[in-house]
Amino acid sequence: MSTRYEDATEAEPLLRRVRDKHFPELVNADILILFDLKKRGSKGMVVLARIMKANDLIRHLTANEKSVAEGYDYIITIDKVFWDNTTDLDRERVIRHELRHTFFDIDSEDNPYKLVDHDITDFYSEVEINRDDPRWRERCASLTKDIYDQMKESGKKVQRSKKTPIEIAAEKGKA
Length: 175
Known about the structure:
By secondary structure, the protein is α+β, with helices and mostly antiparallel strands. It has one domain (5-174): Metalloproteases ("zincins"), catalytic domain (Zincin-like), CATH 3.30.2010.10. It has helices at residues 12-22, 56-62, 80-84, 88-100, 124-129, 136-154, 165-174, and strands spanning 5-7, 31-36, 41-42, 45-46, 49-53, 74-79, 102-104, 113-115. Strands 1-2-6-5 form a 4-stranded mixed sheet, sandwiched between helices. The protein has a two-stranded antiparallel sheet with strand order 3-4. A two-stranded antiparallel ribbon has the order 7-8. Strand 7 and strand 8 (113-115) form a beta hairpin. Helix 1 crosses helix 4. The protein is globular.
């Protein structure tokens, strides 16, 4: 059985840098980052990345005794074709954008980690930060779509792992 996800260990240092610089409230959040090996679309555009809040089942299945005692709080998936064909700056932009969806609710008695939707089709703060390249997302999505189209024409596929996201998370905790 093959899966659409792969461990994104190479993205973890950038995730930590972005979190430390822009999201200090997430310092204790456990965030799993994975590569998505299959093209995902929404409203005619390629989805470069997405963040999900882990539900109780995912938290239970990803919990271990070492580094992630209570399971992951968030899971970020990043399109592998995008990641392999873009700049470090665009990688940082996409991670920062996904982390903008997080909200730390200090008054929550259960789980303080929440998700929020966009202010506009983006976030006002991201528009300001990216004023030097305001259409970066469209540029990256178009490039990624073009690469997928070329791969389809040539019959190539993104190499897929045989592990599920839960197996990947369990292995990360044992490392």
